[in-house]
Design goal:
The protein is α/β, with parallel strands linked by helices. The protein has one domain: NAD(P)-binding Rossmann-like Domain (Rossmann fold, 3-Layer(aba) Sandwich), CATH 3.40.50. The chain has eight helices and seven strands; from the N terminus they run βαβαβαβαβαβαααβ. The protein has a seven-stranded parallel sheet, sandwiched between helices. Helix 3 packs parallel to helix 4. The two termini are about 30 Å apart.
């Protein structure tokens, strides 16, 4: 498969879950993939899997809670692979790490959530844009959430940051629409990941229900999604086929939101 042959892609939060699935898929379509996350061991495994399948990837250890990291990361990728043509903003902090009502919310956790979930995508987008504008080609994709459209009980920071992501995406899409650059988002529902495991366990306990029954009730289709469910729309949006698609947010959520 060669929809993305020789394109340079950067995927954040690529060590596991959605980011891992997207990285493997982009490499499978011929992209050279820079995989970034905090865990070196997880990244090395992703790179090894991509190489075993005949693809090309390089790992970059990056903590996006550091305000200086996005620009440094983009520079490092450019030095190793060339300018970033496809940016996938996937790294995020979920509500499960510290769920509390707003009245008791931890201010430091609020700051961390907005830094990683909203400010990092802004700074990464800003860093890749000059080269995309020079080439008149680029794809910026952000993994948002269904909570970019609805609230999150005891997860105000997560919902606020993900709502902000859509505002950022739509504003940037308007600015670069005539430059060969598209900017879109995908909004996953509950996905079977380590982050979401903690969230549904918290909700099941809070609601006083059985974990397995709660999981099955999360979507109208039934159960949770898997990371690979995010792959087809991501590959499409990263390709030339989606040249006329920009400023859109796609719900991939098992029917949880029908709008």
């Amino acid at each position: 498969m060669t929809k993305l042959k020789n394109r340079v892609a950067l995927v954040t939060g690529a060590g596991r879950g959605i980011g891992r699935a997207i990285s493997l898929a982009l490499a499978g379509e011929g992209a050279q993939v820079a995989v970034a996350a905090r865990s070196t061991a997880e990244l090395d495994e992703v790179v090894s899997n991509i190489a075993s399948a005949g693809g090309q990837a390089i790992a970059f250890t990056a903590d996006l809670s550091d305000r200086t990291m996005p620009s440094r990361l983009v520079t490092q990728v450019k030095e190793e692979l060339g300018s970033v043509e496809i940016l996938v903003n996937n790294a995020g902090v979920g509500s499960s790490a510290n769920p509390k009502p707003v009245a008791d919310f931890d201010d430091d956790f609020w700051d961390l959530s907005l830094e990683v979930n909203l400010t990092a995508p802004f700074l990464l987008s800003k860093a890749v844009l000059p080269d995309m504008l020079a080439k008149h080609w680029g794809r910026i994709l952000t993994v948002a959430s269904v909570n970019s459209r609805i609230g999150s009980f005891h997860g105000a920071a997560y919902a606020a940051s993900k709502h902000g992501v859509l505002g950022l995406m739509r504003s940037l899409a308007m600015e670069v629409a005539g430059e060969g650059i598209t900017v879109n988002a995908i909004c996953p529902g509950p996905v079977n990941t380590l982050m979401n495991d903690k969230r549904i366990a918290y909700d099941a306990q809070r609601l006083g229900c059985n974990l397995e029954e709660h999981e099955q009730s999360l979507t109208p289709i039934g159960g949770r999604l898997v990371p690979e469910d995010m792959v087809p729309i991501t590959v499409y949006l990263a390709s030339d086929e989606a040249r006329m698609v920009t400023g859109q947010a796609f719900n991939i959520c098992g029917g949880l939101l029908m709008s």
